[in-house]
C-alpha cells in the first residue's frame, strides 16, 4: 500500500508522469480544436447545413469531453475527491454521460453520411424542412 501525502497509509494513487502529460495534452488540444470548429461554424453562414449541424453538435460534445471529462478522469484516477463518495459518483456519471453523447453524435454523423451516399438524389429533400 502506498503512503498518502500526510504520511499515513491510504488509498492515494500516484499517477505516472507520462500518463498525466499525455492526458493533459489531449484535453488541451481537444478543447482548442473543437472550440475553433464551433467558432468557424458561428462565423460563416455558408456552413449552416444539416450535416454541419451534426459536426458542431459533435464538436460541442467533444469540447465537454476535453474540458470536463478528461480532467475528471485524471482527478478520479488520483483518488480526488477523497472520502466524498457522492462527488466521485457525480464526476463519474458526468464523464459517462458526456462520452455517451459524443458517441451518439458520431452515430448521427455516420447515419447522415450513409443516407447521403445511399440516396444521393433524395438526400436534400429528405433533410430539409420542406419534406
List keywords for this structure.
131 residues, mainly alpha, Rhopdopsin 7-helix transmembrane proteins, 4 helices
Give an overview of the whole structure.
- The protein is elongated, with a radius of gyration of 20 Å.
- The chain has a single domain, classed as Up-down Bundle (Rhopdopsin 7-helix transmembrane proteins), CATH 1.20.1070.10.
- The mean pLDDT is 83.
- It starts with 16 loop residues before the first helix and ends with a helix.
- By secondary structure, it is mostly helical.
- It is built from 4 helices and no strands.
- Keywords: Cell membrane, Disulfide bond, G-protein coupled receptor, Membrane, Receptor, Transducer, Transmembrane, Transmembrane helix.
- One of its GO terms (cellular component) is plasma membrane.
Q: What's this entry about, in short?
A:
The chain is mostly helical and 131 residues long.
Task: List SSEs in N-to-C order.
Answer: HHHH
Level-1 CATH class name: Mainly Alpha
What number is the mean pLDDT? 83
Q: Cα-atom Rg, whole angstroms? A: 20 Å
Main pleated sheet: none
What level of helicity do the residues show? over 70%
Using the coordinates shown, work out and report the CATH topology: Rhopdopsin 7-helix transmembrane proteins
Q: What is the rounded distance between the termini?
A: 64 Å
Supply the number of helical segments.
4
SS elements, strand count: 0
Per CATH, the superfamily is Rhodopsin 7-helix transmembrane proteins
Shape type = elongated
- Strand-residue fraction? under 5%
